[in-house]
Amino acid sequence: MFKNVTIYRIAPGWAATLEEMEAALDAARFQPCGATQDKSVGWVEPRGEAHGPLVESVAGQRILKLQIETKGVPGSVVKKKAQEEADHIEATTGRKPGKKETKALREDALLALLPQAFARQMNVWVWIDLENGWLVTDASSQGKLDEVVTALVRAFDGLAITLLQTAVTPQTAMTQWLSATTPDEWPGGFAVERECELKSGDEEKSSVKFTRHNLATDEVRKHITEGKLPTRLALSWEGRIGFVLSESLQLKKINFLEGVFDGRPDEGENGFDADVALSTGELQKLLPELVEALGGEMAFGAAATAPADGAATTPPEREAVTADADDDGPPF
Questions:
Q1: Where does residue 192 rank: exposed (0-12), middle (13-18), buried (19+ CB within 10 A)?
Q2: Cα separation, 10 vs 98, whole angstroms
Q3: What's the whole-model pTM score?
Q4: What's the CA gap between 229 and 200, in Å, rounded?
Q5: Are 55 and 92 contacting, i.e. CB atoms less than 8 angstroms apart?
Q6: Sign of the C-alpha dihedral, residues 170, 175, 178, 181?
Q7: Residue 109: CA atoms inside 13 Å, Cβ hemisphere, count?
Q8: At what angle do helices 170-179 and 218-225 cross, to 10 degrees?
Q9: How far apart are the first and last CA of the chain?
Q10: Quick one: pLDDT at residue 107?
Q11: Over the Cα atoms of the chain, what is R_g?
Q12: pLDDT for 35
């Protein structure tokens, strides 16, 4: 269910009932793109059952599913159709369209072509853990994160969230773990695996990637000494979950390892519940330990401070996103 994880902290004081959440999401239920609409965003049933609940509660965890539908027309096709119209205007009137008219012709061409465009649908899972005050999404790109955060704060009155931040940045911690000479220097329960990406901060922005490669080597440590810092590092936790940690504290390529899903029921009525209970149950154990390995969590709304030695620090705090955010701009 979760192949990627981005963690948000829910501001204290927000707690909606299932009924309140259901009513709020029903007002923003997904509707397919209209004939001349290029994007539609809305909530769908997590179980995939038509007219079912939009909020599922499994083992105390609330699961939501956002659907994003987009229709795109290649720019070259739009340009060609607009040029054909411009050529027709010039041939019949002897007048060549100016910049403003050419822009309008392209907009008209796009509207004419959209009804024939192929619609693409993407889903984003949202997990709300009210007990721990987390909001977790599997969005894999900044664009999808923006969509899901905007949809959430528009739906739920009083909801304020901010990206979870740790006292030690992932990049600083990953640098320490890769610089270690023995596994004893890794944080308890975690192991460095066989994939990472290192980048320099100079003008050349040189980078090196290691895949299926032993990272506990002098070669890797030499790159770090020369100024290349890790942006991604493959880790495993307790032999139960494998993932790639990014410099922005995203977990990517999450893989529940052998044995974790043993005894899971076959697909069917109980398959969804088992997937949710097992995946969220494992992540509820992993995430606090990862935060601890990164020096603990910073308080909601706290600003990062630079250490005296000039080492990498936590990125500047992003403002909390609330239901009062400007709907005309990005949520961050």
A1: buried
A2: 51
A3: 0.78
A4: 6
A5: no
A6: negative
A7: 20
A8: 130
A9: 26
A10: 76
A11: 24
A12: 74
Of 18, 87, 72, the C-alpha closest to 46 is: 18
Q: Are 286 and 235 in contact (CB under 8 A)?
A: no
Q: What is the pLDDT of residues 19-40, one digit of tens each?
A: 999 999 999 999 988 877 778 9
Burial of 277 (0-12, 13-18, 19+ CB in 10 A): middle
Q: How many CB atoms lie within 10 A of CB 306?
A: 10
Q: Residue written as tokens 């899903």?
A: 261
Sign of the C-alpha dihedral computed for residues 125, 16, 164 and 178 taken in this order: negative
Q: How far is CA 35 from CA 77, 108, 222, in A?
A: 18, 13, 57
Q: How far is CA 235 from CA 4, 72, 116, 209, 253, in A?
A: 14, 37, 45, 15, 10
Contacts of 111 (CB under 8 A, 6+ apart): 36
- Cα–Cα distance for residue pair 260/285, rounded to 1 Å: 13
In terms of Cα–Cα distance, which of 63, 131, 128 is closest to 272? Answer: 63
Rounded to whole angstroms, the Cα distance separating 44 from 47 reads: 9
